[in-house]
Write a structure and sequence with these properties.
Helix content of chain B: under 10%
Number of helices of chain B: 0
Shape of chain B: globular
Distance between the termini of chain B: 41 Å
Radius of gyration of chain B: 13 Å
Structural class of chain A: mainly beta
Largest sheet of chain B: 6 strands, mixed
Shape of chain A: globular
Distance between the termini of chain A: 33 Å
Order of helices and strands of chain B: EEEEEEEEEEE
Oligomer: heterodimer
Chain lengths: ~120, ~110
């Protein structure tokens, strides 16, 4: 597709349920990022992939959060045993360049997010 | 730890007015600063990126400035239009180059 695609767009999970959120980056993009955005807040970094390698996972809030990008394209963010505090929008972003190049001025493209509500 | 603050949190202006959004950050050792726009229920769209060595960037009616030493950036919007209504987010890149630290945003409404 033309942009970053995320699915599902909306997910309601019961507390304790496992969820999986999918991100299809723009074809050929090397860098992929996951951010978490709580209501009324700015996005917060979760994790970063360069191709299939997860180079930074310092933002994952607990060991219930797991992300993968096994073939260097599609990525999945998995949340185990969901809690109410996990309710947020999960944003995926991609960029053509590696991070050192990205942050020299290459554009980063965000998807529309997956809205997770834990009840 | 880098902290980013945006003032005001919300702003309502009549169409045609020029306006300034403010962003401040606590750690001046940044690679760059970006301004994003977020429409309700949508993702983020990058508006302007300023490298740490630059003072400003312009795109159309938008102008962003950066004063790294004082930890401040401003986004100037000229001749505002109703279509400019959105939340504007400031983000800085520091430390490990993989992550952005965002402010909480300024919610802008431009009225007819």
């Amino acid at each position: 597709g033309a942009g970053v695609s995320q699915s599902p767009r909306y997910k309601v999970a019961k507390r304790g349920q496992d969820v999986a959120l999918r991100c299809d980056p723009i074809s050929g993009h090397v860098s992929l990022f996951w951010y978490q955005q709580a209501l009324g807040q700015g996005p917060e970094f979760l994790t970063y992939f360069q191709n299939e390698a997860q180079l930074d996972k310092s933002g994952l809030p607990s060991d219930r959060f797991f992300a993968e990008r096994p073939e260097g394209s599609v990525s999945t963010l998995k949340i185990q045993r969901t809690q109410q505090e996990d309710s947020a929008v999960y944003l995926c972003a991609s960029s053509l360049a590696r991070t050192s190049e990205t942050y020299s001025g290459n554009t980063i493209y965000f998807g529309e997010g997956s809205w997770l509500t834990v009840v | 730890k880098q902290e980013v603050t945006q003032i005001p949190a919300a702003l309502s202006v009549p169409e045609g007015e020029n306006l300034v959004l403010n962003c401040s950050f606590t750690d001046s050792a940044i690679y760059n600063l970006q301004w994003f726009r977020q429409d309700p229920g949508k993702g983020l769209t990058s508006l302007l990126l300023i490298q740490s060595s630059q003072r400003e960037q312009t795109s159309g009616r938008l102008n962003a400035s950066l004063d790294k030493s004082s930890g401040r950036s401003t986004l100037y919007i000229a001749a505002s239009q109703p279509g400019d209504s959105a939340t504007y987010l400031c983000a800085v890149c520091t430390g490990t180059a993989s992550k952005l630290t965002f402010g909480t945003g300024t919610r802008l409404q431009v009225t007819l």
